[in-house]
Amino acid sequence: MPRERDDDFAAWMDARQPTLHRTAYLLAGDHHTAEDLVATTLAKVYLSWDKIERQGAVDAYARRILVNENNSLWRRAWRKREVTSSAVPDWIEHRDQPDEGSSAEVWQLLGTLPPRQRAVLVLRYYEQLSESEIAATLGVSLGTVKSQASRALATLRQRVPALELEMNR
Amino acid sequence: MNLEDVMTTHADRATAQELTLREVRTRAQRIQRHRRAGVTAGVAAAVAAVVLPISLLVGGNPRSAPPPPGPAKQTSLIDADAVQQDPLDMQIAQAKPGGVPPRPAWIQGQTLHRLDGSRVRLDQTYNELDVVNGETYLGVRSDLDPDSGASIVDEIGDDGQVASTRKVAGLVGQSVTMSADHSIAAWTTPEGDVQVWDRDGESTLTNTGPSRPPGNAVAVFGSETCDQTGSGCSVVVNPPSSMSGAPITYSTAEPDGTPVGHGFRYLHAVSPDGTLYSGIRKLGEPGGTSCSATWDLTKDNQDMELHNCTSSPFEFSPDSTHTAENSPQRDGEPASIEIRDARTADVSVKILAEGDSTTSVIDPVIWEDAENYLVTALHRGKWLLLRGDLQGRLEIVAGPIAPTGEPFSSPYVIAR
Known about the structure:
The structure holds two protein chains of two kinds. Chain A is mainly alpha-helical. Chain A has eight helices and no strands. In chain A, helix 1 crosses helix 6 and helix 4 crosses helix 7. The relative contact order of chain A is 0.11. Chain B contains four helices and 30 strands. Chain B has helices spanning 3-11, 21-44, 51-57, 80-83, and strands at 89-91, 96-97, 106-108, 111-113, 119-121, 128-132, 136-141, 151-156, 162-168, 177-178, 185-188, 193-198, 201-207, 217-222, 233-237, 248-251, 258-259, 264-270, 276-281, 293-296, 304-308, 312-316, 322-326, 336-341, 347-352, 361-367, 372-379, 382-389, 394-401, 412-414. Chain B is globular and about 70 Å long. The interface between A and B is large, with 70 and 54 residues.
């Protein structure tokens, strides 16, 4: 990659890395996985930089890679759970559990949602994306976004009715 | 408690040591090595059709080791999540055969595949195909008259022979346009006629006169009949050139025509529900553009420009939610086609061939329904008929076959 391209990429990376990491943390639920997601995302953006920069879609592209990578991690983890083995796992997932009362309870419940439902909520309520943008990011139809969001919110409301969770949008 | 607050509170804790460009480069090189290894494995192991997707899947995660290939499971569709390295792209190279035949009627070479599944040998070679009311087959032969540039519209008989024929104005873009329910076809003639074919056969909706010839018919609205005894129909017609005139709507009630207005100079496409217009507006007019844009002309939105200068939409999906667009192809780049959200212009999926601007072609998009569409592609020197969907899946319906006839002219013609 020519130097000027590297400079452009580095400038974008510096600006967007903290945001990407925050979103990755919300998607994955723990710092270690989030760091790995961000590293992979940045590397893939770097590889496709020329093309996506021309399209003016760098942020959307990065966001979609982030979500896809997180879903892939989940799929691999699921597959691992289905395979019986006597081998000791080489790493154990660490999930942060901050203690802050009811907010922590909601946070923990978010972690129990299926990845796609969780991704829809993160993109909607944290990234503030429209449903169309979420559909494009996840590669699903608008109807799927609506149904996944509806199910996720219903689950949260059902499990924490006492918290009177507010979802204004 | 607000869900946004919960997320923001926790996200704010997500501080991490920031990566350097060097670290990102190192990770990128590792991904590239994985990709190359995956491709090599896929080519070498022709019997292991599932190896390539799995190898590519592993590309970005250092914690994962490639899982062994599973049992040979036949599938005609790509799992887009599994194989897409670029989430915007659907690589034709990754598409697998096995797609069911097209739902619309279609032509391969000189064989017409009818809607009922029967086949008939055609007398002519056609560039476009339209089926009115599921029973009348109209084929267009392009660029036959060197003087007028007129094309020919043939009514194709049951035996595949030409049953009747007439001229259609030879213009850039499609010659014949169809109503959303495929019950009315419309086109224009070099003599200035706006012709329709409905359940009652062919008729002239209006004649603009040879001194005021129209451009191509870009949309027709109505159902079953254009007759005044019914609800009538209307045909949106472009000017002969994008540099002069303006689009006009001719209808059963107003055969003299009504300008589309809104400063439009030329229309690429109109959504089937009649709300979204894609085209070019005159510079100097309100909303004037020097490149293509899409507007919402519903009363509620009052001529709202949705987006501009992204690309040129040429076909709306049947539910008017998506557009098919040719992305600009620069020297050295392979042909590609994009399916975008009609309102936001966000790319839903992008289909990519291999090769460059002189060796690859993808065209056109014919929607089977609101989710699935058909494209023809010249890819690695052979023609393919493919089916894609909005979820990023791509399958081969027919081909590959070697090119014959005109260069870059697809042997597959799908009815609109």
